Amino acid sequence: MPVFGELEQAVMDVLWSSPTALSVRAVQAALAGERELAYTTVMTVMDRLAKKGQLLRELDGRAWHYRPAQSWAELVRDEIVALLDSGPADQRQAVLDEVRQRVG
Question: 96: pLDDT confidence band, cut at 50, 70 and 90?
Answer without folding.
Answer: confident
